[in-house]
Amino acid sequence: MAMADIRGTLPAPARIAAGGPTTLRAGFIPLVDASILIAAAEFGFAQREGLTLDLVRDVSWANVRDRLAFRQFDIAHMLSPMPVASMLGLGSNPSPTITPFSLGRGGNAITLSARLFARMQEATGLSETASALDNARALATLLGVMREAGELPPTFGMTYPFSSHNYEFRYWLAAGGIDPDRDVKMVVVPPPLTSDALAAGAIDGFCVGAPWNMVASERGVGRIVAAKQDIWPSAPEKVIGLRPDWAQSHPDTVSRLIVALDAAARWCDRPENHDALAEILADSRYINAPVHIIRHVLSGEFSLDARGNRRVIDKYFVFHEGHANYPRPSKALWIYSQMIRWGQAGFSDAGARAAASAYRPDLYRAALPSSAMPQDEDVRIEGLSETDRFMDGFVFDPAHLKAYAEAFPVRSRLAQDRGVEDV
């Protein structure tokens, strides 16, 4: 069904707020994980709730953060750690930010340059079908060879210091025995520039959201070595960020926004809608990438490199299923544990409370029926199930957050020095 036909089948608006539609200016970065926000604007879900979403494409997460803080945006597509960092007072402009809605799970991958991957194979005999952990260990072996030869360490790109990409890249490296702060160099690269930076030799690898990993692999400049599902399948990815004072002043608007996003998330999850979704995402106003790549990403069909090696990841993107939109505070606390692990923050009880306060299930619960809610606790042990394990076998118990952060054999020397301190 063509996109115009789908729009034509949408029901009339269910209700319009008194005084007419409310316009919300929303910042976003051109990534597939902005799908729910884009679908809500393009396919009538916001309109049905009396909302108009004015979507503004931005170039960096720092810009999005600042424009939300300075009230140029009402809401924003944000990295899941950004509200946590803001509530901890971290970063250059830590304006308080909360999230009542997660934009789903999945979408990230780690890509190394084709040249670096070929050297890993030469040094270790690494197979084309090696696991994410085997790839990390092979890189560790190669780094040892490079050090002995007096070579400079590779440079790896991620999108923002307080990002799932940074923490997942570090988690993958450390699981292979690599110290991200000493054995490699980590730099910030905006998502749309990663493929070009890899092709130019400015970086040797990156962790970023779709579709930019597959863009690099199809160009023949990169090899995908790990996906988000390999590291921790339910790791929080992107969220909707709001200023807490704005949310408090506009409770009805927040509820209507959550209802619209919930409907859009359900629609995005259905495979029969992926052709229409890919078509609109490929538009120059949004991601501006080949529609066939976006369609493959939505299906979890990966071209790992330009030599025909492929992989299919079931549910690579989950937009709604399994309570993927629920802003669970234990996930915010896991993010805080990684900030502690890598020396960005110290542990304190006040810090744990501040981190948990960034994720607001109360706002989600107020907007949607109780039948849509998860039945377990908001703060739970993470990584217990067979389908949701961390790649190194660790389990995260928020009740023992400090001990968890200190138990990793690879962690920041700064974290080891600072120990417990107020945040």
From TrEMBL:
Coiled coil region boundaries: none
Pfam families named in the record: NMT1_2
Gene Ontology terms: cellular component: endomembrane system
SUPFAM superfamilies (UniProt xref): Periplasmic binding protein-like II
Entry keyword annotation includes Cell inner membrane: yes
Keyword Cell membrane carried by entry: yes
UniProt entry keywords in alphabetical sequence: Cell inner membrane, Cell membrane, Membrane, Transport
Compartments it resides in: Endomembrane system
InterPro entries: NrtA/CpmA_ABC-bd_dom
Protein's name in the database: ABC transporter substrate-binding protein
Gene source species: Rhizobium straminoryzae
